[in-house]
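Below: protein 1.
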Amino acid sequence: MMSSNISLLSLIWISLAFIVGSLIGFIFRSKQLAKSRKRVLELETEMVENHAEILRLHKLHAEKPAAGTKVPVINLPVGESSGGQARVKG
């Protein structure tokens, strides 16, 4: 009879230890997940703000008048051959 009481008592303690450990692990993991979700939301917000800033700068750049920018143009004489072949005088 004493043997069954000891094994029943040890079974209860093992079950109790498993339940308490599971609860502690669940609470710890829940806090980790909440912290990770918060960090992801912060990073997403930062990315959206950065993209908005880039779009704002593109808009400002597009609204600037294009008269101030000059594109260099190289005029070629009419008599020069095309195709990159050089004439040899001789």
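Below: protein 2.
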Amino acid sequence: MPATTLAAAKRPPAAERVYAHVKQAVLDRRYEGGTLLTEGELAEAVGVSRTPVREALLKLEVEGLLRLYPKKGALVLPVSAQEIADVVETRLLVETHSVRKAVPAPAALLDRLGELLDKQRVQAEAGDFAAAAVTDRCFHAEIVRSGGNEILSRLYDQLRDRQLRMGVAVMHSHPDRIAKTLTEHEEILAALTAGDTEAAVAVVTRHVGWFQNLARGEVR
């Protein structure tokens, strides 16, 4: 089989390519909330016809990232205060339970959290907020997964896209927050290392709860 034919065979379907392109751009804020996307522009950007673009946009509308307007395009929905509040409430329920369950923390978990903390610090210093948001989410997901509850882990994973989008938005609008995030991650790791359950819960509550202040317009 010719190399060009083989390469084409390995490429994902056109609708999947459009879906991945738009979703990633929305999550890392290349397409910010309030942006109106047209089928023609997206078809040209990805190099496909308009039919797979429509299919991809419908899927993204179901996921709550876009709102479609016939003959106009798709509006990227901003992160709402209600969405932030809902995500924070769910995160607090899952993460405070998970951090309690993580004590005493196994060495493998502590090592992994240390690696992610170092990685996020490098990303923050480089100003790569999108990458730092991904690492931030991984840090917390490691603690949730350490409990061994697959149902709880899947529930937490369902928040992934919303967390990433919120995280990138916050880092851009509140660039000083990344330093506080790193400090609080250090405190969580220190509490887990010391086996201090209540200290770990307190830091997680303060760390995640900060977003509630954001939703209420009470950021400090």
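The CA atoms of residues 171 and 178 lie 6 Å apart.
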